């Protein structure tokens, strides 16, 4: 029995108030985005294979896939997924939406196993399970979306000293990487290109979220297009996305995709969560236990993503000698040696 003057302990039903309607909408949109994007990779690959059977393969400079309807179905599916992802940021905090991008990797891997007959190793299955566990942990403990009534409120958050300092450090680091490190180390150090993509990406997500909120409020009857801040955020989104695409393409062209993808995901997601915590103060509305639980979920997703990528080419029961031959083959084709060290691709037909 509780002593006089002390309130009885709260049960977990009282402490857990559930997800807000906005968070649920954002969650559904983020899950839909992962489904569409994950499926798009498989559909596009089917289209590329079909086009390559009747024309010049894309890998050797062919463009016959542009005449293949299946490839366009995959491209449209990816665009729908990206639109759903964009909309998700308008309803839910970035700390909920961004990590769920790992689910597209799971969907792609599972569909490749079923449709393309690409073997999914037992450790790959474990990686998928870890991603699901980590995502579930984050979903159950994500902060409620901050109530915002105008795009000017988002602008005020962006103009606070903490986020201005973060943005200044990011822009400074990006310029240093572009003008000093890329000319010297861009072709030999994978972190240079990915560093630019990830740093710029954290700012682009904050701007995408601001623009998404502006469009959501506009569609609900509160016109935000009359505010100059909306167009400033639009300009930032366009600039950041174009920069990301440019340097991500350089990274993919120079290094093995299996190495670029997990490193980029880890850096981009980590910096995006940091930017969101600084700008929208997501953790101010949570207890230390919730914050720690979210971080554990995020680390679990990172572990699952790494495991899935690291074992994607492994085959159960493969003898050691054959495994060495397989690694040697990938070293020649993809520019990665037997110890998983990314090397520069040596493609003489590639334009400088």
UniProtKB/TrEMBL annotation:
<feature type="transmembrane region" description="Helical">
    <location>
        <begin position="90"/>
        <end position="116"/>
    </location>
</feature>
<keyword id="KW-1133">Transmembrane helix</keyword>
<comment type="function">
    <text>Acts as a Mg(2+) transporter. Can also transport other divalent cations such as Fe(2+), Sr(2+), Ba(2+), Mn(2+) and Co(2+) but to a much less extent than Mg(2+).</text>
</comment>
<feature type="transmembrane region" description="Helical">
    <location>
        <begin position="231"/>
        <end position="248"/>
    </location>
</feature>
<feature type="transmembrane region" description="Helical">
    <location>
        <begin position="291"/>
        <end position="308"/>
    </location>
</feature>
<protein>
    <recommendedName>
        <fullName>Probable magnesium transporter</fullName>
    </recommendedName>
</protein>
<keyword id="KW-0813">Transport</keyword>
<dbReference type="InterPro" id="IPR037185">
    <property type="entry name" value="EmrE-like"/>
</dbReference>
<dbReference type="GO" id="GO:0005886">
    <property type="term" value="C:plasma membrane"/>
</dbReference>
<dbReference type="InterPro" id="IPR008521">
    <property type="entry name" value="Mg_trans_NIPA"/>
</dbReference>
<feature type="transmembrane region" description="Helical">
    <location>
        <begin position="190"/>
        <end position="211"/>
    </location>
</feature>
<dbReference type="GO" id="GO:0015095">
    <property type="term" value="F:magnesium ion transmembrane transporter activity"/>
</dbReference>
<feature type="transmembrane region" description="Helical">
    <location>
        <begin position="123"/>
        <end position="143"/>
    </location>
</feature>
<keyword id="KW-0472">Membrane</keyword>
<feature type="transmembrane region" description="Helical">
    <location>
        <begin position="255"/>
        <end position="279"/>
    </location>
</feature>
<keyword id="KW-0460">Magnesium</keyword>
<dbReference type="Pfam" id="PF05653">
    <property type="entry name" value="Mg_trans_NIPA"/>
</dbReference>
<feature type="compositionally biased region" description="Basic and acidic residues">
    <location>
        <begin position="342"/>
        <end position="352"/>
    </location>
</feature>
<feature type="transmembrane region" description="Helical">
    <location>
        <begin position="24"/>
        <end position="43"/>
    </location>
</feature>
<comment type="subunit">
    <text>Homodimer.</text>
</comment>
<keyword id="KW-0967">Endosome</keyword>
<feature type="transmembrane region" description="Helical">
    <location>
        <begin position="64"/>
        <end position="84"/>
    </location>
</feature>
<dbReference type="GO" id="GO:0005769">
    <property type="term" value="C:early endosome"/>
</dbReference>
<keyword id="KW-0812">Transmembrane</keyword>
<keyword id="KW-0406">Ion transport</keyword>
<feature type="region of interest" description="Disordered">
    <location>
        <begin position="329"/>
        <end position="352"/>
    </location>
</feature>
<feature type="transmembrane region" description="Helical">
    <location>
        <begin position="163"/>
        <end position="183"/>
    </location>
</feature>
<keyword id="KW-1003">Cell membrane</keyword>
<comment type="similarity">
    <text>Belongs to the NIPA (TC 2.A.7) family.</text>
</comment>
